[in-house]
């Protein structure tokens, strides 16, 4: 029973993540507006889509801008749509361009970045009517996931896609350690453990690619966009698939183990460079945490997400280690050793 304890922990963690990740709601948020461009010195009605408003949703204020913004003159809410009248006056010096949208409801601010572009009208020659507004997007902790523009419900994929890639990298790292041990001690058990870890890591990698592809289709409107990190992942996965072909073409077990170990130690640092270093150097990656983009922990990983994300990482790692242990036992059956 003691040997199975870590497996039971992994299953319990994943069940906890599945239930919480599926059934906890998202916070109320803004999912879109019906206009992309409005003119200054003109009253415009914006229809603002509100997601998961709840029965007691009460809008208090809507603002275009930021610290200094244009406050809506009229608010009317009906079944998930908030109508807000704006009459922005830029004046002679007010900046044109994209403006954030903020809505205050039930004491909490919601934000939709770069919602509307304000264009100066020819009649707008007076003084700006922008007001000083205190916008505070931070709110009290509640048991609900953050509602982020574009991501929306797909933010739940954080519990699957990211832990799978963490698991893959950890498995590949441990496999490289066992490959080094084999080269030193010439013990086939180390080769079998390394091989089992690599095969399981490839499985985790393909699952990570599949969940990431679904996420990309939602956020970037493409199943596989041209992105430095995604291209690096594809090259890295092909290198490890080549490892399987390499092993299948060698009959002598000791020669197979030696060549596989050298190949693994050669490929692993290249793989890390492809998925970690190169995207940061490229500067134009869409992927969070790569290039010029920020990581999830800076704007999405709030306290509620952390309650499920860290258990998800531990749970998936334990699950893949369990699969790797089964693969190792299969390897031993193929070539029994003492």
Q: Can you describe this structure in just a few lines?
A:
47% of the residues lie in helices and 18% in strands.
Radius of gyration: 26 Å
Q: How would you spell out the order of helices and strands?
A: HEEEEEEEEEEHHHHH
Report the end-to-end length measured between terminal Cα atoms: 24 Å
Number of helices: 6
* Average pLDDT score: 88
Q: What percentage of residues falls in helices of 4 or more residues?
A: 40-55%
Major β-sheet strand ordering:
2-9-8-4-5-10
Low-confidence stretches: none
What does this structure look like?
The chain folds into two domains: 29-132, Sandwich (Immunoglobulin-like), CATH 2.60.40; 152-334, no CATH class. The protein has helices spanning 5-23, 161-185, 188-219, 228-248, 253-282, 303-334; strands spanning 29-33, 37-39, 44-51, 59-65, 68-71, 74-78, 81-86, 97-105, 108-119, 131-132. The mean pLDDT is 88. The protein is built from six helices and ten strands; from the N terminus they run H-E-E-E-E-E-E-E-E-E-E-H-H-H-H-H. Strand 4 and strand 5 form a beta hairpin. It has 338 residues and is of the alpha+beta class. 33% of the residues are buried.
């Amino acid at each position: 029973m003691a040997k199975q304890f870590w497996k039971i922990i992994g299953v319990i963690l994943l069940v906890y993540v599945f239930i919480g990740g599926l059934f906890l709601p998202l916070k109320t948020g803004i999912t879109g507006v019906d206009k992309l461009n409005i003119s200054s010195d003109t009253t415009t009605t914006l229809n603002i889509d509100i997601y998961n408003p709840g029965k007691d949703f009460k809008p208090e204020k809507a603002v275009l801008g930021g610290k200094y913004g244009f406050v809506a003159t009229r608010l009317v809410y009906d079944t998930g749509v908030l109508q807000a009248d704006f009459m922005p006056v830029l004046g002679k010096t007010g900046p044109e361009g994209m403006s954030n949208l903020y809505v205050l409801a039930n004491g909490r601010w919601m934000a939709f970045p770069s919602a509307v572009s304000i264009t100066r009208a020819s009649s707008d020659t007076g003084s700006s009517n922008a007001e000083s507004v205190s916008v505070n997007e931070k709110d009290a902790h509640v048991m609900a996931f953050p509602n982020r523009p574009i991501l929306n419900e797909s933010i739940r994929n954080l519990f699957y896609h990211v832990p799978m890639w963490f698991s893959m990298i950890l498995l590949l790292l441990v496999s490289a350690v066992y490959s080094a041990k084999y080269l030193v001690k010439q013990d086939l058990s180390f080769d079998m453990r390394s091989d089992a870890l690599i095969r399981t890591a490839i499985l985790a990698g393909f699952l990570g690619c599949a969940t990431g592809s679904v996420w990309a289709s939602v956020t970037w409107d493409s199943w596989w966009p041209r992105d430095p990190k995604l291209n690096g992942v594809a090259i890295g996965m092909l290198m490890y698939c080549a490892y399987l072909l390499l092993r299948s073409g060698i009959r002598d077990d000791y020669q197979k183990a030696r060549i596989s170990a050298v190949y693994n130690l050669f490929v692993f640092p290249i793989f890390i460079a492809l998925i970690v270093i190169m995207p940061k150097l490229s500067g134009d990656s869409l992927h969070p945490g790569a290039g010029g983009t920020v990581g999830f922990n800076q704007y999405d990983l709030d306290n509620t997400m952390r309650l499920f994300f860290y258990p998800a990482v531990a749970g998936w790692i334990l699950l893949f280690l369990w699969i790797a242990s089964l693969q190792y036992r299969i390897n031993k059956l193929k070539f029994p050793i003492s």
